[in-house]
Design brief:
Order of helices and strands: HEEEHEHHEHEEEHEHHEHEEEEEEHHHH
Number of domains: 2
Distance between the termini: 75 Å
CATH topology of the largest domain: Purple Acid Phosphatase, chain A, domain 2
Number of helices: 13
Number of strands: 16
Helix content: 25-40%
Radius of gyration: 22 Å
Largest sheet: 6 strands, mixed
CATH class of the largest domain: Alpha Beta
Strand content: 15-25%
Structural class: alpha/beta
Length: 407
C-alpha cells in the first residue's frame, strides 16, 4: 500500500512538472542548484545575490515581456524580488546584494518618470553595491548625478572619469565590506559613447596610470572615448592589495557582457568572482541557458580559478551563489543557481501598491491605439535591429512618428 501510494505521488509530481515546463508562457525549466560539496566550516561562507539589466521593469511581466494581466504566468517585478531577497537574507545573514547595471530604459516607468521611481524602488530593495550600465548615461551626466545622489548605497565604477560634470566625485573605484573581509571593484563597457549619451567631458579611462606601459597608450582618443576596462580593473585590484593587504577576497561587478567576462577572467589576477551584465545572458540548468552557473575559468594565465555569474535580464531571475573561502582567499566550495522570480513568490505589498500607483500615471496613454500593422513583429529582433525596415519601411516610419495626442 505504501509502495503504491509513493508511486502514485511520484507519477502525479512528474505529470505536473511536465505541464509546467511545456506551458507556452513558461520559458525555462526549474533550476537545480549545483556546486562542490560544502565544507562543514561555514564561517567563511558569503552568499551573493545579484541582478542585472532590469531595464525599468519595476512591475511584473509575461514571458513575452508584456504587461501582466493575470491571464498568463507572470515573472519578475521588484515587489517579488523584495520578498525573495528578504527571505534569503533571513536564511543567509552573511550576504550581499549586487546590481550589475542598466536600471534605466526599457519601460514607461523610466520614459514617463525618469530615474526618480527607479532610485526610490531600488533603495527599498536594499542593494549593497551597484555598477553603472551604459543606459545609465542615456539622460546625460546631470540626470545620472541626480540618480546617484538619491541612492543609499555605493555606485562602484573605476573606469569612468568626468572632466566637467562632477560625476567622478560620486563614483567609487572600489568598496570594502569589513564584515565579509571583501572588496568589490566595478567597471562598465567601453562602448558607452557609441550606445548612450554621456556628456562630452565624460570618458572611460585608466584612472591610475602608474604603469609606464599604460601611460604610453593613447588614453584620450576623444573626450567621450570609453577605454579598456580590463587594465583599469587590474590596476584597481593592485591598489586594493597595496592599500588593504588584509583583503584577500575580491569581487568584480562588470557591465561588459558574458563573453568579455570570460575573457577578463582569463586575464585578471586577484579576482575570484565576476558578477556581470550587459549581454542579458542566462546561465544554469534552464532550457535556454548559454552556459554553466557559475561558469568557471579553471586556470587563467596566473594559475587562478575565476567564477563568472550573470542573471539574464529584467529581474526575471535573482542570481544566488554561496561561496566558501579558504584562508588564502580562494573559493574552496560553492553552491548556487539563478532563482526564477515566478508567480508563486508573493509580492511585497508596499512595493506592489507603489508600483501600481505609478502605473496609473501613464496607463491611459500606454493602451491608446495609435496605429496597426499586418506585419509580424518579432520582439527579439526589434531589440537588436529595425523591426520591419527591410520589408515595410513606410509602415515602420508611420508607427514611430504617429502622434500620441490631439495637440
Amino acid at each position: 500500500m505504501l509502495l503504491s501510494s509513493t508511486f502514485t505521488s511520484l507519477a502525479l509530481t512528474l505529470f505536473c512538472l511536465s505541464g509546467l515546463v511545456s506551458a507556452d508562457d513558461y520559458l525555462v525549466s526549474r533550476a537545480r542548484s549545483i556546486g562542490r560539496a560544502k565544507r562543514s566550516d561555514q564561517t567563511n561562507t558569503i552568499t551573493i545575490l545579484h541582478v542585472n539589466d532590469v531595464h525599468a521593469h519595476l512591475d511584473q511581466f509575461t514571458a513575452a515581456g508584456g504587461n501582466c494581466d493575470g491571464k498568463k504566468t507572470c515573472f519578475g517585478g521588484y515587489a517579488r524580488i523584495k520578498t525573495k531577497v528578504e527571505e534569503l537574507r533571513q536564511k543567509y545573514p552573511n550576504s550581499l546584494l549586487i546590481n550589475a547595471g542598466d536600471e534605466f530604459q526599457g519601460t514607461q516607468f523610466y520614459s514617463y518618470y525618469g530615474h526618480t521611481v527607479i532610485s526610490e524602488t531600488i533603495n527599498q530593495i536594499g542593494f549593497d553595491a551597484m555598477t553603472l550600465g551604459n543606459h545609465e548615461f542615456d539622460g546625460g551626466d546631470e540626470n545620472l548625478i541626480q540618480f546617484i545622489k538619491a541612492l543609499t548605497f555605493p555606485v562602484i565604477c573605476a573606469n569612468v572619469e568626468s572632466t566637467k560634470s562632477g560625476l567622478t566625485e560620486l563614483l567609487h573605484d572600489y568598496w570594502i565590506f569589513p564584515k565579509q573581509e571583501l572588496a568589490v571593484v566595478g567597471v562598465t563597457t567601453a562602448d558607452t559613447p557609441d550606445i548612450s549619451h554621456p556628456d562630452p567631458g565624460t570618458r572611460i579611462v585608466h584612472k591610475f596610470l602608474e604603469s609606464a606601459v599604460l601611460t604610453c597608450q593613447r588614453i584620450i582618443l576623444r573626450d567621450t572615448k570609453f577605454l579598456d576596462p580590463l587594465k583599469t580593473l587590474q590596476i584597481t585590484v593592485n591598489r586594493i592589495k597595496e592599500k588593504h593587504p588584509e583583503i584577500k577576497r575580491i569581487i568584480a561587478i562588470t557591465h561588459i557582457g558574458y563573453d568579455s567576462d570570460i575573457q577578463f577572467a582569463q586575464e585578471i589576477e586577484g579576482v575570484q568572482l565576476t558578477i556581470g551584465g550587459h549581454s542579458h545572458t542566462l546561465l544554469g540548468n534552464f532550457d535556454k541557458s548559454e552556459g554553466d552557473y557559475p561558469t568557471i575559468v579553471k586556470k587563467n594565465r596566473y594559475g587562478d580559478e575565476v567564477f563568472v555569474v550573470t542573471a539574464s535580464k529584467w529581474g526575471q531571475y535573482l542570481g544566488k551563489i554561496d561561496l566558501t573561502y579558504d584562508e588564502d582567499g580562494k573559493i574552496a566550495s560553492y553552491h548556487g543557481s539563478p532563482i526564477v522570480m515566478e508567480s508563486d513568490i508573493k509580492p511585497d505589498a508596499t512595493i506592489h501598491a507603489q508600483v501600481a500607483q505609478w502605473r496609473q500615471g501613464f496607463h491611459e496613454k500606454s493602451i491608446a491605439k495609435i496605429g496597426s500593422t499586418q506585419s509580424d513583429l518579432n520582439y527579439e529582433e526589434c531589440i537588436d535591429k529595425e523591426c520591419m525596415s527591410d520589408q515595410h519601411p513606410d509602415e515602420e516610419n508611420k508607427c514611430t512618428t504617429a502622434p500620441t495626442s490631439d495637440a
